[in-house]
Amino acid sequence: MSLKWSSLDRRLKGFLVVVFLFALGNSSNQFLLLRAHDLGYSAADVILLYLVYNLVYAAVSYPAGRLSDILGRRTLLVMGYLFYALVYLGFALVTEKQMLWYLFATYGLYTGVTEGVEKALVADIAPTDQKATMMGLHATLVGIGLLPASLLAGALWKWFGPSVTFYFGAVTGILAAAGLLAVLGQLPGNRKLQGM
Fold this sequence. Notes:
The protein is globular, with a radius of gyration of 17 Å. It has 196 residues and is mostly helical. It is built from eight helices and no strands. It has helices spanning 10-25, 30-38, 43-71, 73-93, 100-125, 131-160, 162-184, 191-194. The chain starts with 9 loop residues before the first helix and ends with a helix.
């Protein structure tokens, strides 16, 4: 079956657009590592910071999936995007390098809460006969957004400094959270999707 964008449910189209726009503000993790280096961490310490991120991410992923079955995917994804905004705001404002341990842990929380839940939400709202196609489209849109996101982040860093790069990411996270609430609204017939 061929994919026709116009035939997709408006909520699914809106969700995919919001995810793509969020991806445009979700630059490479290398910028977080570069920020840590700029604040005085050695290469070895930067690796430890990234390890903290990965440990939190791994610890949170499964419980986040379970929680999404209870609270709803939309609710958890909105929370995840807000965590992203919070951590990027923190990276914009941080002056004490010790705070980076908390920021990397919070970033792991964002990733653990959103990665699997975002994909599950795609599967929940995709037409039954196009679930795999929509999962592929979702991955494609996220992948396409990553290159310009990092180019834009690099340009902002070079021209305006690191703080502006992270402010931009924070604003993107807030807009994505608001966009999800607006686009998905009340999804009838599935309490888990509604997040109520």
